[in-house]
Write the structure tokens for this entry.
Amino acid sequence: MPEIYPLEWSNERLKILDQTKLPKEQAVIIANNYIDVLDSIKSMSIRGGSILSIAAAYALTLAAKSVSTNDVQKFLEYLENVIHEIINSRPSMDSLLKVTYKIFDKLNSLSTVQEMKDFVQKEAEKIHKEDLSINYRIVNLGENLISTGQTILTHGNTGALSTSGYGTALGIIRKAHESKKNINVVVTETRPFLHGARLTTWELAQLGIPTNLIVDSAAGFMMINKKIDSVIVGAQRIAKNGDFANEIGTYSLSVIAKQNNVPFYVAAPTSIIDIESANGASLPIEERNRNEVIHINDSEIAPKSISVTNITTDITPHENISGFITESGIIYPPFNNTF
């Protein structure tokens, strides 16, 4: 099967597969500095919690390499300012804050600027490699929940494009296919950015996995008519009690699944569990530009004069979830620091 890698670190620059151009074109952005990486995050050329963490680590690497001073204090002050810029590129994504400060907080144990520069790059490469290992552990556990011949519904994009190169929820589906389980996949289009229609179906087509694309509002019809055996989605952030934030429409799917006795699983790394957030009420909700709703590519699909609400995340309550598939096993809330 063809491998899909959304990021590649090579020759001290970051190659980014521009996801806004898919499925029509496989265009690559060459990021020579951290600003190029942040622009790619803001434009949604890179999206998905895991891959954003990796991109943030490489953005910090590029920023560190650009510094000419040998003054440790000035170097650290500069990097901390860059970290704030990285976090503000997608404020709702807690993974950006976690990964950048995970690296930054270790720099005080080093003596020279060069040691710090080398350390930042090594940490970025380590995070990149570790994410792929986490993906494999998640999918190996999750695949056991899928029986031969099942039809699985997924929402958004949680495959190689949103991770280091294999996937979480979509990775489980891929693993079941590779295990010859003769599965079928139903993909919601996932408005407004069409992550399901543009990205997930493209990945599944590349992998040769039977796929059926539906409009978001058809999920209820599919479930009440017994056309779906299980739902597997990803997550952007998970609260201590198991409530979680994800792409808009996830909550609705969970309600429909519960009403129709369809298992509803969340596949995600434990790193996005936020112990400090007691429940979903404290998780941030992202609202993006209105043009994402009234335009598809360059086509205007609604009058510019109307009011538009473009909420792109929602909160799914823990009671709607059958289990969390993580690298540490299938776990259940409430969560603590030991998984």
User: Anything to note?
Assistant: DSSP finds ten helices and 16 strands in the chain.
